[in-house]
Amino acid sequence: MLKGIYLLDEAAYNKIYGEEQRKQIGQLVRIEAPLQTSQTISTNLSVLQDVDIILSGWGCPKLTAEFLAHAPRLKAIFLRSGIDPLFCHGCLLGQADCGHNRL
């Protein structure tokens, strides 16, 4: 099973990823840590070490090369922010609610 984390601010998390969405995601992705925000992840980047998927949205930290270097297994980043899917540093970056992006 893929390993993932939620990485966004708490208000956005509660608005974007409702109970039903989290349940569906949980059937495909094992969430490895409690909700991570820009503040919490900056103090513990080791959380990214075994992550395959980042589920994000508003309040996501800047995804710099330095940040991504802490996530060597990262395969995809799903943002719920209205962007079109694109590739970034060798991993898929797409909308979490886009029907053609399947895990």
Task: Please tell me about this protein's structure.
The protein is of the alpha/beta class. The protein has a single domain, classed as 3-Layer(aba) Sandwich (Rossmann fold). It is 24% helix and 24% strand. The longest helix has 8 residues, at 19-26.
**Count of the domains:** 1
CATH topology: Rossmann fold
Mind telling me the C-alpha Rg? 12 Å
- Which stretches are poorly predicted, pLDDT < 50 over at least 5 residues? 82-103
Summary tags:
single chain; about 100 residues; alpha/beta; Rossmann fold; 6-stranded mixed beta sheet; 4 helices
Sum this structure up briefly.
The chain is α/β, with parallel strands linked by helices and 103 residues long.
Blueprint (SSEs and pairs):
Blueprint: E1 2-7, H1 10-16, H2 19-26, E2 29-31, H3 38-43, E3 53-56, H4 65-68, E4 76-79, E5 86-88, E6 91-95
Parallel strand pairs: 1-2, 1-3, 3-4, 4-6
Antiparallel strand pairs: 5-6
